[in-house]
Amino acid sequence: MLRRLALTAVVTLTAVSAIAPAASASGQVPSALPTSGPLSAAQPAPGPLPVPLPALPSFLKGGGSGGSEKPAARTRLTVTVERSGVAGADGTFELTCGPTGGTHPERQAACDRLAEVGATRAGRDLFRAAPEGTMCTMIYGGDAYARIVGTWEGRSVDTTVTRGDGCEIARWNNLVPVLPDLR
């Protein structure tokens, strides 16, 4: 806090000295600082150089209305589903969130689910397979297979999900509607 106050004081003094230069020997304040040529004793020295400011966060850089550029999606996934047994559910679909888009059949619901899970503790393990040695029930949920590749909330994703045991069925169900509901 003290360092910030000291920096504020330096910036304030710099701005004041640049706006109101000292009076010359004749008592007159020069109307402008010299723009070229060497400095001499008769010319007042220009004020200190401006202090560089840190870069603005991206949300402050003209991201409001009137900007022609769309922000890059923080979530961009390619979802491939095979052998689901649900009409229209198999195939390869693109999903982008923030803004919502792509060819995914339930893109808004999928983005909402990813945002909901991402804000929880479970979000850290959303795309992670069960750790080696985890005890999973030996329930077979069918031949369905999915692969999800891309970025989620800026993090790299490359995972496969099946329905080969209780852990995988739970993972699949946790990813509905990113993956089709097979319950």
TrEMBL record:
Coiled coil: none annotated. Residues 27-38 have a biased composition (Polar residues). One of its GO terms (cellular component) is extracellular region. Residues 1-22 form the signal peptide. Residues 24-75 are annotated as: Disordered. Residues 76-158 form the Subtilisin inhibitor domain. Residues 45-55 have a biased composition (Pro residues). One of its GO terms (molecular function) is serine-type endopeptidase inhibitor activity. InterPro entries: Prot_inh_SSI_I16_CS, Subtilisin_inhibitor, Subtilisin_inhibitor-like_sf. Pfam families: SSI. Gene3D superfamilies: Subtilisin inhibitor-like. It is found in: Secreted. Keywords: Disulfide bond, Protease inhibitor, Secreted, Serine protease inhibitor, Signal. Belongs to the protease inhibitor I16 (SSI) family. This is Subtilisin inhibitor domain-containing protein. The lineage of its organism: Bacteria, Bacillati, Actinomycetota, Actinomycetes, Kitasatosporales.
